[in-house]
Fold these 4 entries.
Entry 1:
Amino acid sequence: MNELSGCTLLYTRDAAHYPAFRARIAALGGSALHLPLMTTRALPLIDADRTILDCSDVLVFTSAAAVHHLIEQYPLRNQQTVAIGKTTAAALPSPPTITAPAPYNSEALLAYWQPRGMRIALIAAPGGREQLAATLNKNNTVHTLYPYRRANPTAVWPDALPLPDIITIASQQTLNHLLAIIPQEKLKLLKYRACIAAISARVAQYAQQQGFQQTIFAEDASETRQIAAICRWWTQTQEQRHD
């Protein structure tokens, strides 16, 4: 299979995920470069946070990182657990009470689950899932706890890094990290030439708002669907070039 022959992708998740992604892209005839744009840092829980957790009926985990950083500091008790996505669900020590259905995002969770009168702890990073918290808070008591924060592990755009055809972007903040480090002259080229392969329609829309001319998004929040969308876009692009 050479669906991605001649295609260069820039992968922006952390190093732990990169080898498997690179192998999948190579099997399709493409090449993957790596520029990590997202990492997480633990934030310590305070006593008030632990009290909120102890008194909560439900813990809503917004990412696998939220799971990891919370359970490092707090042993889960008898609370119900809700996971946004399969990866988040898999990170929990036992299967969650509820997992958001496809496309595994806040909107899908809210369409499936409308709790009332519950005490909910939303486990997230600062700046994330604010709309989810606001919606749940209409009929419940919601506290958002931050056992971690997101950070950019890359301080500058490497001079030797070639401009890619496609850049994978998993969140709005990941794109913000890219915008913060790339020189303006290269950014202008990227906005015109490169395609943003977003993990969701919301992230793709945000990329468009930042001026990127070409965006695609996965049918759900998984790398398998993201790669499928990339293959479709690259095939269409090559066909148009040869017309």
Entry 2:
Amino acid sequence: MKGNGPLHIACLAGQTKVVQILLDNGANVNLKAQNGFTPLYMASQENHVETVKLLLANGANLQALTEDGFTALDVAVQQDHETVVVALLRSEKRKGFHALHDAARKDLTKPIKFLIQKGHAVDIRAPNGFTPLHIAAKYNSANAAVLLTNSGADIDALTKTYAITPLHAASKFGHANIVTVLLQAGAKPDKPNRVRKILISKPRPFIIMILFMPWYKKLYENRVSLLRSHWIK
């Protein structure tokens, strides 16, 4: 039976400085100990959020499974460690996005339910105006979409710039199952988005002269020819 190495012990105790020293000296950040526990799993289990962040920054595998098939995120949710759950979900650090957006993108229903129960806003906005339901619709996260709609998410939430709804997003990417979920939840099938205005600059006067006045066109061509011959010399 595998025992715990120094890195596992430091992670269990939340000794972040020691963890850093061990990693700097070649310790395997994803080494499995007894029951398949990784250092990240142990730090998550014990609610050591700074240690968790350090491990993630050094390449800890979020998807690593214990012998019973659990991840670090699973144990953090199970143990009610909110800050660790958020840290694990935000490991990719997409600026302005929330842990709920990341959970929706990955179709992780347990963390979504956990965060909503902890008071995180179900319709929290990303910089582009997307709610978690927009994200679920875009990435075909059917389970997340069902959970979010059942949790009171705004079915017809609009983004600021182009008034995109979750149904628009699902329709664009061809996610028929998400379209069905949203329609069954009451999404408006005929709701329009906001059309982007295309600005067409007015043609410059000299271009019009070149196109429609043969004598000016000839003058322009002669001038170009003279300039070319000057530079060739």
Entry 3:
Amino acid sequence: MASEQITLFDLRSKGPNHAWSLNPWKTRLLLNYKGLDYKTEWLNYPEIKPTLEAHVPPNAEGYPYSIPTVAFPDGTWIMESRAIATAIEERHPSPPAHLSSPYQSRIEALVPAAMKALLPIFYANVPRRLLEPASLEYWYRVRGEKVGMPIDEFEAKHGGEAAYAAAEQPLRDVTAMYKENGGEGPFLQGAKVCYADFVWIAFLEFARRIGEDVYEGVLQRTGDRAVHEKLMQAAAPWLKRNDH
């Protein structure tokens, strides 16, 4: 009998191994929320292409092969967190993730804006604090090519307080979104969580996994840290499974 278990391909960290990366966390949160049976296959960066290329066509944009990827029990493999969310929702509609929420497109604009501002901090600290040695050469080479300079130089020129200051407006815009429900919270739709929440929770958990100093730096620029702390408390049941 074929297994009905989903396989999530996620990125390995230094021991003890835990989920850390933003995009895989979106998928993991959704799987945990829906209570689906899944296992995790952990990969270092150089293992991604060799593992995936026989099963899924390359992405049309960005990195050709990326994490998260999910293998469904029917043999379907899908890359990219948003495409995975759609496939999960089609196969397992309950409880609903509200992918058509009007907040979805808005959060998908604000998170990249905050990420872009904070890249000098993220790109420098992920390899120092999270990656196994097997991923380091890949990270420094590929990310350095993306920003057009060595990562240490990128951090020196654009990191620190300047990066947090550049991120402040999109971070405050997210806070304003969470206050649109009249303070009912803790989620964007009030008491009902939606996938747009998972996108933001994944961002916050990514910052927290890099380090409490980075997480604190983000919270301080949101304009109202309590909004986000309450959200993370509410999300705790879906963040708990992070190592298998």
Entry 4:
Amino acid sequence: VYWTVAGDVVTALAIADVNGDGANELLVGSRDFDIRIFHNEDCVSETTEAEAVIGLSGVSRNRFAYSLSNGTVGVYNKGSRAWRVKSKHQVHSITAFDINSDGVPEIISGWSNGKVEVRSQTTGEVLFREMMSSSVSAVMAADFRNNGTDSLLVCGKDGEVKGYMPMQQDAGQEARHDMAAAQESLVELNRRKNELKMELQRLEERSNAASQM
């Protein structure tokens, strides 16, 4: 029987390989703002956050996601905070799921205002957002179709349940190609904008010089 003492009221639990040694550790979040990491029965790490820890989820090797009672969600990588964001709403559930089939799980969070967010685990950038008809009760990944492929499940407080299949790999590649093309277009538009501003400035200078003659 495994047992240990966390030190305060436990509010979140997760299993993840946070040190990259190939073995899982136990992550414990508590009401006293601490995230403790246990290897077997030994506490090997303890981090104090700004508010009570209400959500934890393993993401990928060395990484785990967390949420706080003040509306903060973020990711730790090798014991150091990679990023965090804060909202006026509260995260009710958090998990990791590779929704775009790029081989890297995204951070999925369900919020008190019904918002479902998909964020990059490396940067925290919002990749997708949708609203449920009520507060989100839970988000989870499971093979509920029994076809060997996990899907993302989102449950609302009013009983609404939505399922999201991972994008097909070619669709994911197409989406990334479209994003890259859009970024290139934006760079070109900014370059053209700067050229036009410089041309306008030259015309104004010529006009001012002519009016002073």
